């Protein structure tokens, strides 16, 4: 069986049906047997869901022991009733697991603006929190319990060594619509048994999110509920990581980034109504900021997305999107390539169109994985963004989301 959260020392979990969603699991609980360091980032949308307000405060102390997530109701734009509901989730989790309330992180996903079903969720917590277990099936239950419009569960697991000790790292995520994170509805929860001080874990999370979850887009909307939280409980027994200069910290950070990238790409591949996964590479840019802004601007363009859907090698849309990135951009120095994972064809050389076989290009763009590469020829920095195409199915699906 594929390894998951339950294979990380000291962590147990569960996923169950509380009654909010019809016939599907809608409540997940992740628990560490000891208080763990936590690093977390949250949505920058000015409309903030009630559980985000609670979790931001609880994460400030650098420690957490449980994460509880409900699906089916975002608990956003719900006012005092919703805030009280989020706090009721905290209280029920803390009481049932016999831990401090400040050690509970809460998260919600689903429809915005609906009254929060506090009673159902609290009863679900009281009934299911005692069931947290290290059985492998529980990891799958939790991964499925956080889904909304997703078509499949998103999980990952890594093993590596730190300080000569085996370290485990696992994560789950959800998201297929309202995906355009700028953190700090997309959620990701990662657990590890590495021993690391909270401030250093927070630094690692903030930095790796910038190159992973913050480089994906499906529809250009940042959710009210976006959250990425990482708990590290120290059960691996390594010497505590305290310095970003240490070799062991760099090993941990690289694997954390690998996990985040894996989950982020799964989210894009499950974009609502999408038919293609598109990778946008900006290379040889003057600096990282320029590269990242260009990659995000191109991947976020609806005109580029529709061109990808229609297998149209319309490089003008890509250049135009880059010109809207808010950074200095001179297309006359750019080489541009279009294609798929296996082969790319140059369509621009130093800003001048290159003759190519359009029928062959359409064949390349027919693949489910598309590649766009822009070579700035003006430095050494690079960035990669991932996105989906914009399809008629996406428009139809989201035109009747609540009805």
UniProtKB/TrEMBL annotation:
<dbReference type="InterPro" id="IPR042195">
    <property type="entry name" value="ArgJ_beta_C"/>
</dbReference>
<keyword id="KW-0012">Acyltransferase</keyword>
<feature type="binding site">
    <location>
        <position position="272"/>
    </location>
    <ligand>
        <name>substrate</name>
    </ligand>
</feature>
<feature type="binding site">
    <location>
        <position position="148"/>
    </location>
    <ligand>
        <name>substrate</name>
    </ligand>
</feature>
<dbReference type="InterPro" id="IPR016117">
    <property type="entry name" value="ArgJ-like_dom_sf"/>
</dbReference>
<keyword id="KW-0028">Amino-acid biosynthesis</keyword>
<comment type="subunit">
    <text>Heterotetramer of two alpha and two beta chains.</text>
</comment>
<dbReference type="GO" id="GO:0006526">
    <property type="term" value="P:L-arginine biosynthetic process"/>
</dbReference>
<keyword id="KW-0055">Arginine biosynthesis</keyword>
<dbReference type="Pfam" id="PF01960">
    <property type="entry name" value="ArgJ"/>
</dbReference>
<keyword id="KW-0808">Transferase</keyword>
<keyword id="KW-0511">Multifunctional enzyme</keyword>
<feature type="site" description="Cleavage; by autolysis">
    <location>
        <begin position="184"/>
        <end position="185"/>
    </location>
</feature>
<dbReference type="GO" id="GO:0006592">
    <property type="term" value="P:ornithine biosynthetic process"/>
</dbReference>
<feature type="binding site">
    <location>
        <position position="398"/>
    </location>
    <ligand>
        <name>substrate</name>
    </ligand>
</feature>
<feature type="binding site">
    <location>
        <position position="174"/>
    </location>
    <ligand>
        <name>substrate</name>
    </ligand>
</feature>
<feature type="binding site">
    <location>
        <position position="185"/>
    </location>
    <ligand>
        <name>substrate</name>
    </ligand>
</feature>
<feature type="site" description="Involved in the stabilization of negative charge on the oxyanion by the formation of the oxyanion hole">
    <location>
        <position position="109"/>
    </location>
</feature>
<comment type="function">
    <text>Catalyzes two activities which are involved in the cyclic version of arginine biosynthesis: the synthesis of N-acetylglutamate from glutamate and acetyl-CoA as the acetyl donor, and of ornithine by transacetylation between N(2)-acetylornithine and glutamate.</text>
</comment>
<comment type="similarity">
    <text>Belongs to the ArgJ family.</text>
</comment>
<comment type="pathway">
    <text>Amino-acid biosynthesis; L-arginine biosynthesis; N(2)-acetyl-L-ornithine from L-glutamate: step 1/4.</text>
</comment>
<feature type="binding site">
    <location>
        <position position="403"/>
    </location>
    <ligand>
        <name>substrate</name>
    </ligand>
</feature>
<keyword id="KW-0963">Cytoplasm</keyword>
<dbReference type="GO" id="GO:0005737">
    <property type="term" value="C:cytoplasm"/>
</dbReference>
<feature type="site" description="Involved in the stabilization of negative charge on the oxyanion by the formation of the oxyanion hole">
    <location>
        <position position="110"/>
    </location>
</feature>
<dbReference type="GO" id="GO:0004042">
    <property type="term" value="F:L-glutamate N-acetyltransferase activity"/>
</dbReference>
<keyword id="KW-0068">Autocatalytic cleavage</keyword>
<protein>
    <recommendedName>
        <fullName>Arginine biosynthesis bifunctional protein ArgJ</fullName>
        <ecNumber>2.3.1.35</ecNumber>
        <ecNumber>2.3.1.1</ecNumber>
    </recommendedName>
</protein>
<dbReference type="GO" id="GO:0004358">
    <property type="term" value="F:L-glutamate N-acetyltransferase activity, acting on acetyl-L-ornithine as donor"/>
</dbReference>
<comment type="pathway">
    <text>Amino-acid biosynthesis; L-arginine biosynthesis; L-ornithine and N-acetyl-L-glutamate from L-glutamate and N(2)-acetyl-L-ornithine (cyclic): step 1/1.</text>
</comment>
<dbReference type="InterPro" id="IPR002813">
    <property type="entry name" value="Arg_biosynth_ArgJ"/>
</dbReference>
<feature type="active site" description="Nucleophile">
    <location>
        <position position="185"/>
    </location>
</feature>
């Amino acid at each position: 069986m594929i390894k998951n959260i339950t294979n990380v020392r000291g962590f147990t979990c569960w996923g169950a049906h509380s009654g909010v969603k019809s016939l599907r699991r809608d409540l997940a609980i992740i628990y560490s047997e000891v208080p763990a360091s936590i690093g977390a980032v949250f949505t920058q949308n000015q409309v903030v869901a009630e559980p985000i307000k609670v979790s931001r405060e609880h994460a400030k102390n650098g420690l957490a022991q449980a994460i509880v997530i409900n699906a089916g109701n975002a608990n956003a734009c719900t006012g005092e009733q919703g805030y009280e509901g989020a706090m009721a989730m905290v209280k029920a989790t803390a009481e049932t697991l016999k831990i401090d309330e400040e050690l509970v992180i809460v998260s919600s996903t689903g429809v915005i603006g609906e009254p929060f079903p506090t009673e159902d969720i609290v009863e679900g917590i009281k009934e299911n929190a005692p069931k947290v277990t290290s059985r492998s099936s529980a990891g799958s239950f939790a991964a499925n319990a956080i889904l909304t419009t997703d078509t499949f569960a998103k999980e990952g697991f890594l093993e590596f060594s730190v300080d000569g000790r085996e370290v485990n790292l696992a994560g789950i995520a959800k998201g297929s619509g309202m995906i355009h994170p700028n953190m700090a509805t997309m959620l990701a929860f990662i657990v590890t048994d590495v021993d690391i001080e909270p401030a250093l874990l927070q630094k690692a999370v903030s930095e790796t999110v910038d190159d992973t979850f913050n480089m994906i887009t499906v529809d250009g909307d940042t959710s009210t509920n976006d959250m990425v939280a990482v708990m590290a409980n120290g059960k691996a027994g390594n010497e505590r990581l305290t310095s970003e200069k240490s070799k062991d910290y760099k090993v941990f950070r690289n694997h954390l980034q690998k996990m985040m990238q894996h989950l982020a790409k799964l989210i894009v591949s499950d974009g609502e109504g999408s038919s293609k996964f598109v990778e946008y590479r900006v290379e040889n840019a003057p600096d990282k900021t320029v590269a990242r802004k260009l990659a995000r601007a191109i991947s976020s363009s609806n005109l580029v997305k529709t061109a990808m859907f229609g297998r149209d090698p319309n490089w003008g849309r890509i250049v135009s999107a880059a010109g809207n990135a808010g950074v200095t951009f001179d297309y006359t120095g750019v080489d541009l390539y279009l294609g798929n994972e296996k082969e790319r064809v140059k369509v621009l050389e130093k800003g001048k169109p290159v003759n190519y076989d359009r029928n062959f290009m359409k064949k390349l763009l027919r693949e489910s994985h598309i590649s766009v590469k822009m070579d700035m020829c003006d430095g050494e920095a690079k960035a990669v963004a991932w996105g989906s195409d914009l399809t008629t199915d996406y428009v139809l699906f989201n035109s009747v989301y609540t009805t």
